[in-house]
Amino acid sequence: MTFNRLLCKAVQVNRVVSRSAFTSAKHDYVNPNWFRVGMAFGSSAVLWGMLFWQHSEDVREYKLRNGLE
Amino acid sequence: MKFIPDEAKGLPPPEIVNRNSVGLGGMGWLTALLQNALKLRPALKSGLHRQVLYATVGWLFGYHVTKVENYTYAKLDRDMNEYVRRHPDDFVPKEKKTFAEIVEPFHPVR
């Protein structure tokens, strides 16, 4: 830290040499983070769509390989 | 790493609703409920988007786990049947006797 820090009285109280980059805040339970909610529901919808698509692809591949239909 | 090789695509694919999907989807849902409980939120009513997302991820993982499971057991069955086919002397069908031949004649004492 700077030289001036050594002259400040606060040095005797706070002897931590390094500083943390983390911050914290109280949880806001009243206003939902609508972006995160939308992302979660959106990605769930995409994943379900992918599941049904993958299933139909698998059925098609199975029928193709075994000569059905 | 190749979990599902190409020949596995010849097997019938699992249904959308299968045992592993339901189990792992349920576990994902319970993980969301547990996270709610640990953060001191109402377990069932809060974070519905999170519950749905975790359950969905579990369901998808279960679908692929079922595919790997089907392939593993199919491969084991094929190898086992091939071994039985190549070693017929080890697998001679046993002569079966009916109960009528084994059991002594019945004389009721009344």
Describe what you observe in this structure.
The complex is a heterodimer of chains A (69) and B (110). Chain A has 69 residues and is mainly alpha-helical. Chain A has a domain at 30-68. Chain A contains 3 helices and no strands. Chain A has helices spanning 3-7, 10-13, 34-65. With 110 residues, chain B is an all-alpha fold. Chain B has a domain at 14-89. Helix content of chain B is 57%, strand content 0%. Chain B has 3 helices and no strands. Chain B starts with 18 loop residues before the first helix and ends in an 8-residue tail after the last helix. The model of chain B has no long low-confidence stretch (mean pLDDT 93). Classes of the chains: A mainly alpha (69), B mainly alpha (110). Chains A and B meet through helix 3 of A and helix 2 of B.
Summarize this entry quickly:
The complex is a heterodimer of chains A (69) and B (110). In chain A, 59% of the residues lie in helices and 0% in strands.
